[in-house]
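During the second half of the funding period, the structural biology subgroup turned its attention to how the target accommodates small molecules. The most pressing case was guanosine-5',3'-tetraphosphate, which had performed well in the primary screen but for which no bound structure existed. We therefore specified the complex as follows and requested a full 3D prediction, including the ligand pose.
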Amino acid sequence: MSDLIKEINRRRTFAIISHPDAGKTTLTEKFLLYGGAINLAGSVKGKATARHAVSDWMEIEKERGISVTSSVLQFEYDGYCINILDTPGHQDFSEDTYRTLMAADSAVMVIDASKGVEAQTRKLFKVCGMRGIPIFTFINKLDRDANETLDLLDEIEKELGIDTCPINWPIGSGKGFKGIYDRQKECVITYSDTEKGTREGETSIIPITDQDKILEAIGQEAKDKLDEEMELMDAASAEYDLSLVHQGKLTPVFFGSALTNFGVEIFLKYFLEMTTTPLPRNAEQGLIDPIENAFSAFVFKIQANMNKAHRDRIAFMRICSGRFDASEEVKHVQGGRNLRLLQPQQLMASERKILEEAYAGDIIGVFDPGIFSIGDTVCAPKDHVVYEGIPTFAPEHFARVRQVDTMKRKQFVKGITQIAQEGAIQIFHEMSTGMEEIIVGVVGVLQFEVLKYRLENEYNVEIKLDALPYEHIRWIENKDEVDVSKISGTSDMKRVQDMKGNPLLLFINAWSVGMTLDRNPGLKLCEFGVN
Ligand code: G4P
């Protein structure tokens, strides 16, 4: 096997999705720990002191102690080269969080066992579902009292519309947590609360044939419950079928406790076996194969002004095929010219390193002098690959924006347009007024602050934002067939246009969306805009 094939086949590139506080950071830390990438858990991101080490790029992050950027972490484990795409949560949830999912080949969904499926998980899942990528579920915090396992699985199936296949099964929870039963290997793995941050502790593995030992380890009550649940599962649960997993129709489910480091390595091992190698990707020319095709990549995120003094930007690219060699020129397809990618870098745990080569599956950040846009393709100079664009995701918060000093109109329009082009915000205007009145839409409210901060610091323009009550935006899928001015909407509906002149509708509540659809047969509305 050539080095190229070997390198690509050992890559696994995935995103971790969850609602804030479900344990995404803790789980990531434990993964890195197994990979030997960090010496101490707690040094990833997110937690007070360490946070800035990974993403100290924007001033606003430093001021607020939050991570606006999403990072990519690469580490080695058991011969695999793993790329984890972090999807920021909390108030720093933004359109970038969704875009990051476009660069992943699979997703790990972390669920808090006492909370079940929560709002942010639902949103992120929807985007993964749209792409049909494999989704693996890790149900966390079994060391705390958990919901009934059957209820949790039922909730995932009903709320997210994906079948579940538990690969292991928890035995009790909270104070009564005894371990897990591995349904594939048919053994009980007993729980041990290891010291935080160390590798998985001493546990015993008892085969199902050794019933006496299991009884001794978990007690009669837990054993009776396990026997009963397993009987039920064997009869009722979906069978494990890897092809359905790969189509995103069936999610393998695992249980554990990231904090006490139980079930994490077991999960990681199964996950790495079950998930996919870098996937082929759709381009105008058809599917581009990661191994057969020469180098190609697409830009999924642009991070602006990491260094205020230079107004530079970093474009994050997902390599989709072949090998990237930093010494060779590549073709920037949309820009129509060949160039060298400058300062290509990768995040390894908490540091950035300049790299000389990378392979399909990897994510690289390159210095962007302002030429790249989200969705752009770069490829080998001899080729002409054009990857499918990245959808525009529906903002959920809207505000009317105006500059305080009316004399600065020009800078204001220039600044806000540039920031919108980078993809940090979306801007709309009313059909009738044009750029006179600008409405800003964001996925996470923090982006409003980012906008205000950047306009003041980079363009010297002070702005005022007046919140608008809209929460739902819809693109008109069949815009060429519909006369937008004739759409009979609800009283809260507002017609706007985006920067490219696409008509959109804003609504205050979901009910109005349904009502408008009812009143206008043939109207097709969509939650994503395709560029
Ligand atoms: P997030 O990235 O998904 O937002 O979650 P994060 O890992 O930061 O975890 C949120 C909180 O839940 C943290 O507690 C963390 O220690 C805790 N946690 C994570 N996994 C488990 C688990 O398996 N069991 C239990 N019992 N707790 C877990 P915190 O008090 O908010 O932060 P910290 O002060 O402990 O760091």
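Two results from this model are relevant to the next phase. The domain at 281-379 is CATH 3.40.50.300 (Rossmann fold). The CA atoms of residues 290 and 321 lie 4 Å apart.
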